[in-house]
Specification:
Elements (H helix, E strand, L loop, with lengths): L1 E5 L11 H15 L3 E7 L10 E14 L2 E12 L2 E8 L17 H19 L5 E5 L5 H13 L5 E6 L7 E2 L2 H5 L5 H4 L14 E2 H8 L2 E4 L2 H9 L7 H6 L4 E3 L29 H11 L9 E5 L8 H13 L3 E6 L4 H13 L6 E5 L3 H10 L2 E4 L9 H7 L3 E5 L2 H6 L16 E3 L4 H17 L1 H12 L6 H15 L2
């Protein structure tokens, strides 16, 4: 099977969040199964070009229709972690991708509508005919729309589309001008509630909704989040659309790449270990403490690794820090905030706690430090307000770092409370709480830290339960193969 993966991110060359990890990890898994996978990305100025091998021009002189004329595009190719990638490089006055950041510009909707059109134009002009096009999030929501409204008649006859939504909070809501730019026209047709018309903004185009309506299969990144998107506010206004298209909508839990996140082979982990040699993990704890100037003492170490934004429950992250210290634990934080006010707030907190030998706040992001923290910490907190899938808890489980998480989204599917889960004992791998408040977090965190202090052998069993579970891409990869096979034969 030939799969074209069209996305705005791919780790490690262009990444703002978990989407990039998914695109790389799933592409790798499909390739290992014998499928042929191409990844199509924008060619951002700010990409990690040092992580691309053999970068060269693959197709020059591509002319992409745009408004009443065309925009010349050069398509580059190179290898990213042994995966073949193509990079769309438009030569337009707007400089769509000649900017330092991936997102955050007033014309983002136009930028990625152009990318979607250029990706299809490249497939058409180059003679590439994938069996399945797999596109991701609002940035590529126009791909199935353009395929079935324009490119199917032009020569892409048999291609099928799987559309995966990683975050319903960002939907690509824009004005009808995008219809004219892409050559679709007919605003009265596409603004209909059954097509691209935004449910909450009459006269606005919703690119994510377009992807849902036109794709052959729609997925999100965990089974529980699929339920949330349809039946709670987590769908951010698209619940009714998902109900209409429920027959093609499902949740497939993300995996993580065990070639990257694996304490047995991790190059960033000084003391590598397995479930059979888990005592070596404590050598990493000592090194982590030295790295962050924490005192070497017999006490648990709690960590938070990730973005500092509203979605992640920043008020609960702060509370987890203080509560951990009250319970005699140490706390390490690694993260940065896209919001200046939140960044300043955590800078003040760092200054206040600067001399505390049981706490360290690192405001930035370093892959090396992230790996060391997962290997050295005893627990990780994930108190998200919403979490479609979550990677932190999956990584933590592999590293024997017990997750303390809110019972939401993909966290429901992956973390099972030691005391309250109905699953068999050997499947219980962490601690959970339900309400996004301090009382709920206190309950789970107190139980976790209390188990560490009072029953260390039992705490180690919980660690080993998580380490022995399989959250690789093998299972999700098979699920996507089944979806692809189904839509190919519709």
């Amino acid at each position: 099977m030939f799969v074209a993966m069209i996305a705005s991110e791919c780790a490690p060359v262009a990444q703002a969040g978990g989407l990039g990890e998914v695109v790389l990890g799933l592409s790798r898994e499909l390739s290992m199964r014998g499928d042929f996978v191409d990844i199509i990305l924008p060619k951002y100025d700010g990409m990690r070009y040092d992580r691309i091998e053999y970068l060269s021009v693959a197709f020059d002189g591509l002319q992409v229709p745009w408004y009443q004329g065309t925009v010349p595009v050069t398509v580059w190719t190179g290898l990213v972690n042994e995966r073949r990638c193509f990079f769309i490089d438009p030569h337009s006055p707007e400089g769509f991708f000649a900017r330092p950041d991936l997102y955050g510009y007033d014309d983002d909707a136009m930028r990625f509508a152009f990318f979607s059109k250029a990706a299809l134009e490249f497939l058409l002009a180059s003679g590439r005919r994938p069996d399945v096009i797999h596109c991701h999030d609002w940035q590529t929501g126009m791909v199935p729309v353009l395929l079935y409204e324009t490119y199917q008649r032009a020569g892409l006859y048999d291609q099928r589309v799987c559309y995966t939504i990683h975050n319903f909070a960002h939907q690509g809501i824009t004005g009808p001008e995008v219809l004219r730019a892409t050559g679709l026209g007919r605003p009265e047709h596409f603004l209909h509630p059954d097509r691209l018309g935004d449910p909450g903004n009459p006269g606005a185009v919703n690119l994510m909704k377009g992807g849902i309506v036109y794709a052959n299969a729609v997925t999100t990144v965990s089974p529980h989040h699929a339920w949330e998107a349809r039946h709670t506010e987590q769908g951010h206004g698209l619940g009714a659309t998902l109900d209409v298209h429920a027959g093609k909508f499902s949740g497939v839990l993300n995996g993580i790449d065990y070639d990257v996140w694996n304490p047995e082979i991790d190059p960033f982990v000084p003391e590598r270990y397995t479930p059979e040699s888990v005592e070596l993990k404590y050598g990493n704890k000592k090194i982590l403490r030295d790295r962050f100037w924490l005192r070497q003492d017999y006490k648990p170490l709690v960590a938070y690794v990730g973005r500092l934004d509203r979605q992640k429950g920043v008020h609960l992250i702060r509370h987890a820090l203080h509560r951990s210290l009250e319970l005699g634990a140490q706390f390490v934080l690694l993260g940065t905030s896209p919001e200046p006010a939140l960044q300043q707030e955590f800078e003040r907190l760092r200054w206040e706690l600067n001399d505390n030998p049981d706490c360290h706040i690192e405001l930035g992001f370093s892959p090396e430090l992230a790996h060391l923290i997962y290997a050295g910490a005893d627990m990780v907190v994930v108190p998200s307000l919403f979490e479609p899938c979550g990677l932190a808890q999956l990584i933590a489980l592999k590293y024997g770092t017990v997750p303390v998480v809110r019972h939401i989204g993909g966290l429901v599917d992956t973390v099972h409370d030691r005391e309250h889960s109905g699953l068999p004992y050997e499947d219980r791998n962490g601690f959970t709480f339900h309400q996004p408040d301090e009382q709920g977090l206190d309950s789970a965190l107190t139980r976790a830290i209390g188990l560490w202090w009072g029953y260390p052998e039992e705490f180690r069993r919980v660690m080993l339960h998580g380490m022995r579970q399989d959250h690789s891409w093998a299972g999700p990869g098979w699920s996507y193969v089944q979806i692809f096979d189904r839509i190919r034969h519709q």
